[in-house]
Amino acid sequence: IEHYSIRVAPSLSVARAAATSVSAGVGKTKHKVVVVGNPIPNSVGPLPGAKAEALAVLQVLCDSEWDKFDTMIASRDIDLVLPLKGSRLGHGRLLLEKSAHKSGVLTAMQDASVVHLACHGDMLTDSLLMAQKDGGASDGAGSGEMSMKEVQTQLTLAPGATVVLSACNTGRGKIMGEGVVGLSRGFLFAGAGAVISSLWSVHDESTKELMSVFYSHFSAGRRAPEAMRCAMLQLIHAQPKGIFTHPYYWSAFIVTGASTSIRG
Questions:
Q1: Model confidence pLDDT, tens digit, residues 171-208
Q2: How many angstroms from the chain centroid is the CA of residue 223?
């Protein structure tokens, strides 16, 4: 990572499909960004660090009017549309806690160019845990589990989108003929050019720092693998040296697919 940007592909066909998706998205004039943080209630429990991470990410992307939204963001039930900085960025959709239920998140992500999901992940069911509603029935509309199959069949992202699955173990899955099949694969099938996912249980505070730095470079025009490399290097070489320099805190995340950019 000191010398190279790294991205992976589970198979040549996935790499080809991701590159084709990125090519189809070239020239898009406005990018829609969706940020989800700490969906509650869910079957595991709250993630206060995920809410802080979502706010930090959107603040990096938001324009100079961010301060005016502080009072609204103090609420536990947030669904906001915010202006983003830069001529190629359109608007950002922020869904926190009770507003981040599965149907609302799936709707918000349609045709999104950038998606950031800070939440719990369930490796055993290949699901992300969104907020439950209507009692959280496991087989109905109130279920908070957003499965890989639902992502594949119900979601259409903007061509070449960048998706960040900021949850535990989102890069893992079953080993099949076409490589690892899990949550990342679902978003690639939905049109993503690149998916950033984790290989183990990640640390709240270091992940918030890593993602904030990643988006500062990504929004400035660096491609996803290079932006992630820059973020990792910043944690490695932080001064004074702290606990986040250990590989556990910065090396969990991988970029799968193509080399995407928010700048087209």
A1: 998 888 778 888 999 999 999 999 999 999 999 999 99
A2: 15
The per-residue b/e assignment along 238-250, b for 16 or more CB within 10 angstroms, e otherwise, is eeeeeebeeeebb
Q: Which has more pLDDT, 239 or 166?
A: 166
Distances (CA, A) of 162 to 237, 241, 254: 26, 31, 13
Using alpha carbons, list the distances in angstroms from residue 171 to 27, 108, 117, 135: 29, 23, 13, 30
CA-based nearest residue to 217, from 204, 232, 205, 207: 232
Determine the length of the chain.
264
Residue 241's pLDDT is 79
Number of neighbouring beta carbons within 10 Å of residue 183: 30
pTM: 0.93
Q: Give the integer Cα–Cα distance in Å for 162 and 60.
A: 16
In this predicted structure, which of 60-64, 91-95, 259-263 has the lowest mean pLDDT?
A: 60-64
Query: Does the structure show a pLDDT above 80 at 67?
Result: no
Cα distance between residue 254 and residue 195, in whole Å: 8
pLDDT confidence band for 169 (50 / 70 / 90): very high
Phi, psi of 9 (to 5 degrees): -145, 135
Structural tokens at position 253: 């995340």
Give one word for 169, left, alpha or beta, with left for phi > 0 and alpha for psi -120 to 50. left
What φ, ψ does residue 38 adopt, rounded to 5°? 50, 60
Tokens coding 48: 């206060």
What DSSP string runs through 162-191?
EEEEESTTTT-EEEETTEEEEHHHHHHHTT
Distance CA 58, CA 63 (A): 9
